[in-house]
Specification:
Protein name: Protein kish
Largest sheet: none
Function: Involved in the early part of the secretory pathway.
Subcellular location: Golgi apparatus membrane
Number of helices: 4
Helix content: over 70%
GO cellular component, one term: Golgi membrane
Strand content: under 5%
InterPro entries: KISH_domain, Ksh1
Distance between the termini: 16 Å
Length: 72
């Protein structure tokens, strides 16, 4: 089953995208800052979400890890 049809997998993909974009933006800010519009602007927006909501994102990642570990 793909991540598009399973809600838990879709949430996992979104969380990983946000966390990865925030990490890449921390290491190489010029890569995401020059692509703020268009299709690649999605990555810049995900990096902003990850930076500004980092306590909530880490809580969501922890909850997702526990739910995967327990097999929910």
């Amino acid at each position: 089953m793909t991540a598009l049809f399973n809600f838990s997998s879709l949430l996992l993909v979104i969380l990983l995208l946000i966390c990865t974009c925030a990490y890449v933006h921390q290491l190489f800010p010029a890569i995401l800052d020059r692509n703020k519009t268009g299709v690649t602007g999605i990555f810049w927006k995900c990096a902003r979400i990850g930076e500004r909501l980092s306590p909530y994102m880490s809580l969501c990642c922890g909850i997702m890890a526990i739910s995967i570990f327990l097999g929910m």
